[in-house]
Amino acid sequence: MMAEPAPSMPLLDQLLQAIDAREPVALVTVIDASGCWSASIGQRGLVWLDESRGWVGDLALPHQFPQILQDSRQALHQRNHRTYLYERQGDFIKLFVEVQVQPPHLIIVGAGHIAVPLASIAKINDFQVTVLDDRPQYAHPTRFPTADRVIAGPFRQEIDNLRPRGSDGGKLPFDNHTYMVLVTRGHQYDIDSLLEVLGDPMAYIGMIGSQRRIRAVFELLEKEQGIPGEKFDRVYAPIGIDIGARTPAEIAVCIMAEIINVLRDGPALPMREQIQQERQRRRERAK
Predict the structure, then answer these.
(1) Which long-range contacts (CB under 8 A, 24 or more apart) does 272-279 make?
(2) Looking at residue 169, what is its pLDDT?
(3) DSSP letter at 191?
(4) Burial class (CB in 10 A: 0-12, 13-18, 19+), 94
(5) Which of 15, 34, 45, 226 could pair with 57 in a Cys bridge, judged by C-beta atoms 3.0 to 4.6 Å apart?
(6) Which residues, at least 6 apart from 114, have a Cβ–Cβ distance to it below 8 Å?
């Protein structure tokens, strides 16, 4: 059963509020129509991914064409503008679905040598960039001139403070348009930060470290904290695409390459594959 449009604030106000809150929303406009639908040209509506939000606006067509909601949400999920044409009994209606989404958000935890070029490369690639570190002399705007936010404070506390907030003001999990890179000065800080977000449906969590060290850390967390091994399968560690990188700038390139590979569903194989396969074999032997 389709949700009824909710009487509320004007469409433009809701659109601006959604953009400010970093909520994906689609603006649907009738750009052409014929016959009995011609009077709807110029009408608009808003649709969210959340089906409980229903439909907002002067466009009443979703009640006659339920496919409009499904198609609009699909465009919003794919983060691409779309044009749709619907026909009925010789008349047609043409809609333009304008997707309003914030750029993907990269949170760089750790403000050391790798973070500096990584922040610049991410910004060039149209990411919103946040850098945080517990050392104010490193987490400083002059060190990261291209970053949108530079935060100095305790790692887990500041990560929690970055969580999006719902309409009731409560904190929400990081969403699948959020990417996180853990490159702190000490592996214990990387692990603490990882534990803070491991259960969030983020698009990407990458953690720096050698294969031996990553393997040992995951095995320790499984034993001491009872974390299911499958949860670590989503962590990109060792981080990056293997391009033989050596310098901090080269490592930043290989990390950003992996993030773009995830964003675009690319074909490149991440360096984590070997550890992931070893964990899978160990789980199969344990059965």
Answers:
(1) 272/235, 272/236, 272/237, 272/238, 272/239, 274/211, 275/211, 275/214, 275/215, 275/218, 275/237, 275/238, 276/233, 278/215, 279/218, 279/229, 279/232, 279/233
(2) 67
(3) H
(4) middle
(5) 45
(6) 183, 208, 248, 251, 252, 255
Q: Considering only CA atoms, which of 167, 204, 200 is closest in space to residue 182?
A: 204
Please count the residues of the chain.
287
The letter for the amino acid at 181 is V
Q: Is the pLDDT of residue 113 over 80?
A: yes
What's the pLDDT band for 285 if we cut at 50, 70, 90? confident
Question: Can you give 199-239 as a three-state secondary structure string?
Answer: CCCCCEEEECCCHHHHHHHHHHHHHHHCCCHHHHHHEECCC
Mean pLDDT of the chain: 85
- Alpha-carbon span 191 to 163, nearest angstrom: 18
Farthest-apart Cα atoms in the chain, separation? 69
pLDDT at 254: 95
More confident residue, 64 or 231: 231
User: What is the rounded distance in angstroms from the CA atom of residue 98 to the CA atom of residue 251?
Assistant: 36
pLDDT for 127-164, tens place per residue? Answer: 999 999 999 999 999 999 999 999 999 999 999 999 87
The confidence score (pLDDT) of residue 274 equals 61
Q: Which of 181, 228, 229, 231 is nearest to 204 (CA)?
A: 181
In whole angstroms, give the CA distance from residue 2 to residue 17. Answer: 24
Cα 35 from chain centroid (whole Å): 42
Tokens (6 digits) for 24:
């994906």
Residue 271's identity, in one-letter code, is M
Q: Residue 191: which of 227, 150, 140 has the closest Cα?
A: 227
